[in-house]
């Protein structure tokens, strides 16, 4: 993995960083690279409330904010920014304003690498809208000033349309921190995390591959 | 939240009747339903802070419950209510959680706007 000057991670929901990217974040932090995580919403509209339910629609944002802060702490992210948008509404924001808002953060942090969702291939409308706003903001920069953009894609048709991921990071060395980050989002991952650990113990190849290999598509401007 | 207790919920619905209230009403199957099962038709809706007055309301059924609020000019309806809570701001929070515990429906009534 290349050593970066600064990595900027931009996702809409607390826990978006945990599954596909937290290993890569840990590797960058171990490399001495500062990481900024800009998280657009607090996942206010999440469906997981714990079972039996310990969260309500009204307490969920506060709980998820604390979980996000805990995940950032576990990963060693020093600069966590919560941008105050609302879950499920990102695609309805004014696109230019949203891109400008992200543009300010890009300008300020001057990253050599941005990690976000691949617009159109990231399933959740908030994911696609966030990725699209990042791409729009980066496009505003002169071509020689643009950071690399690594996108996360997981729609069922993504490989058919955009091919195989061109960046695959082996994060097995930091698997403990990745699992801790996933577990930090307890309200959302309670059940899943338990199953996952069981699968890892049993060395299920599909789960191990998903866990230890983080895949990205470099955006071609 | 606690499993819904019909009598208790009814008392709360009565308490909030005939005054200006703010409603959060939502149904959701989650943003990933069609991703995991392409034959599943994904749908959902929510309205947050609709301001209205209902003249009376009722919780019915044997659980999961149905709730209907009758207004001068219409109705508010939610089906699948399993849990309730009156929070520290005296808001009535009703929710329906599916068999895996995920939120499927919410109806919340408050005298002040939801954040």
Overview of this structure, please?
The complex is a heterodimer of chains A (221) and B (115). Chain A has 221 residues and is α/β, with parallel strands linked by helices. Chain A is built from eight helices and seven strands; from the N terminus they run βαβαβαβαβαβαααβ. Chain A has a seven-stranded mixed sheet, sandwiched between helices. In chain A, helix 2 runs antiparallel to helix 6 (175-184), helix 3 (95-109) crosses helix 4 (125-139) and helix 6 runs antiparallel to helix 7. Chain B has a single domain (2-110), classed as Hypothetical protein YojF (Protein Yojf, Chain: A), CATH 2.70.180. Helices cover 12% and strands 51% of the residues of chain B. Chain B is built from two helices and nine strands; from the N terminus they run βαβαβββββββ. Chain B has helices at 6-15, 33-36; strands at 2-3, 21-28, 44-52, 54-60, 65-71, 74-81, 83-86, 92-97, 103-110. In chain B, the strands form two sheets. A six-stranded antiparallel sheet of chain B has the order 1-7-8-9-2-3, with helices on one face. The radius of gyration of chain B is 14 Å and the shape is globular. In chain B, 35% of the residues are buried. Chains A and B meet through loops of A and strand 2, strand 8 and strand 9 of B. Chain A: One of its GO terms (molecular function) is hydrolase activity, acting on carbon-nitrogen (but not peptide) bonds, in linear amides. Chain A: Pfam families: PIG-L. Chain A: This is Bacillithiol biosynthesis deacetylase BshB2. Chain A: Its cofactor is Zn(2+).
Counting H and I runs of at least 4 residues, what is the number of helices of chain A?
Answer: 8
Low-pLDDT runs of 5+ residues of chain A are none
Mean pLDDT rating of chain A: 94
The side-by-side strand order for the widest beta sheet of chain B comes to 1-7-8-9-2-3
* Largest beta-sheet characterization of chain B: 6 strands, antiparallel
Structural class of chain B: mainly beta
Strand content of chain A: 15-25%
């Amino acid at each position: 993995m290349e050593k970066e000057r600064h990595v900027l991670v931009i996702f809409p929901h607390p826990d978006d960083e945990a599954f596909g990217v937290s290993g890569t974040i840990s590797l960058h932090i171990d490399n001495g690279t500062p990481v900024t995580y800009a998280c657009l919403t607090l996942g206010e509209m999440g469906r997981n409330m714990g079972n039996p339910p310990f969260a309500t629609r009204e307490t969920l944002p506060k709980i998820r904010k604390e979980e996000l802060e805990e995940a950032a702490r576990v990963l060693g992210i020093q600069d966590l920014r919560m941008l105050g948008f609302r879950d499920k509404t990102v695609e309805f924001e004014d696109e230019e304003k949203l891109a400008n808002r992200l543009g300010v953060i890009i300008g300020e942090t001057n990253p050599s690498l941005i990690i976000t969702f691949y617009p159109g291939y990231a399933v959740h409308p908030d994911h696609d809208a966030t990725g699209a706003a990042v791409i729009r903001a980066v496009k505003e920069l002169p071509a020689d000033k643009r950071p690399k953009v690594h996108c996360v894609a997981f729609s069922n048709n993504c490989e058919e349309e955009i091919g195989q991921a061109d960046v695959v990071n082996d994060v097995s060395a930091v698997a403990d921190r990745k699992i801790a980050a996933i577990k930090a989002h307890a309200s959302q991952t309670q059940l899943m995390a338990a199953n996952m650990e069981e699968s890892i113990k049993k060395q299920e190849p599909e789960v191990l591959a998903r866990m230890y290999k983080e895949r990205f598509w470099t955006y071609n401007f | 939240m606690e499993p819904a207790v019909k009598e208790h919920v009814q008392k709360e619905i009565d308490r909030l009747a005939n005054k200006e209230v703010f409603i959060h009403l939502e149904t959701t199957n989650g943003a990933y339903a069609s991703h995991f099962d392409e034959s599943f038709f994904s749908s959902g809706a929510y309205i947050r802070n609709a301001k209205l007055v209902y003249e009376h309301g009722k919780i019915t059924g044997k659980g999961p419950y149905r709730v209907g609020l009758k207004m001068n000019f219409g109705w508010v309806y939610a089906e699948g209510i399993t849990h309730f809570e009156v929070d520290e701001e005296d808001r009535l929070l009703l929710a329906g959680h599916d068999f895996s515990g995920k939120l499927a429906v919410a109806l919340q009534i408050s005298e002040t706007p939801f954040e």
